[in-house]
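Why does residue order matter? Because the sequence determines the fold. Keep that principle in mind as you read this record.
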Amino acid sequence: MKLKYLWLVVAVVSGLNFSVTAAQASATYQRTKTTAIKKQTYVATTTKASTYRANGDYRHWTFKPNHALKNYQKTTWTATQKTWITMHGKKVLYYWVHNSKNNATGWLWSGYLKPVQPTQAQLVAQTKTAKHAQQIVTVVQTGATTGTLKLWQKQGTSWKNKLTASSRLGGGGIGQSREGSSKTPIGAYHLSFAFGKAAKVKTGGLSYRQIKATSYWIEDLNDRQYNTWQNRRSANRKNEHLIDYTKAAPYNQYELAVVMDNHGQHNGSGFFIHVRNQWATAGCVAISLSQLRQLVSQLGTHAYVINVQKTAQLKNY
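Structure:
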């Protein structure tokens, strides 16, 4: 008998969902002070409930249904305020919401709401980089040494995707890089200039340099011109002779490239967006030559790249 009674109690308690039913709408509840919250967009997870209007003070609060959720399928609800209501002896969270369909408003139990994940365009708009950029190239890792590159163009207050390309990354993927680590550096970097084999290349305003026999990228940590482009008659083997990578494919990585300017950040040197081949890079981002030409043709002087392991990390930069 004791065991049967215990199961009955469990069944009753587990059946509570802390939402107001039609029969409970006339009941009186206590609640906390209404407080404003950061706007968050949700979708409703049920069609069998309603939003509610409420009347009364903190100690005597009553509900009245005003909008049946079944009439708002495939729409979103934005929460702007919250309150905690004491129901069944427990404090339950309710949100003040308005609907995207016709701006219907009411109180809704938080258990019926599922957050809407922001799009990548929305995440780009929320980045710190977006405050001073006109173009942002995002590189999101998708595999051990692969990623997806996207070019975003600012248009008013929104960001539009102008190019999408599969990419190869450093042998160590995207992460905290250092000299010789073969990792693509995580974070945001200014795209300072383009360079390549041709005498002239069409850009969106980004400056361009032609590689000469004397062109080197200095990667010797002991060189006072470390991590810069220099023209020299010769340089030691720690430095990169750029013209050596303008040969026939697959050794044409620098037929066209864009500099990811990490100067002074002490996380390695010579990071570029360059021509892709069949191998992982030493830390650069590589896409096909045709797509790189499209990218460079659009890049201006206020362009940045953000390299991340996961899309959600974009908001950190």
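The chain is about 10% helix and 40% strand.
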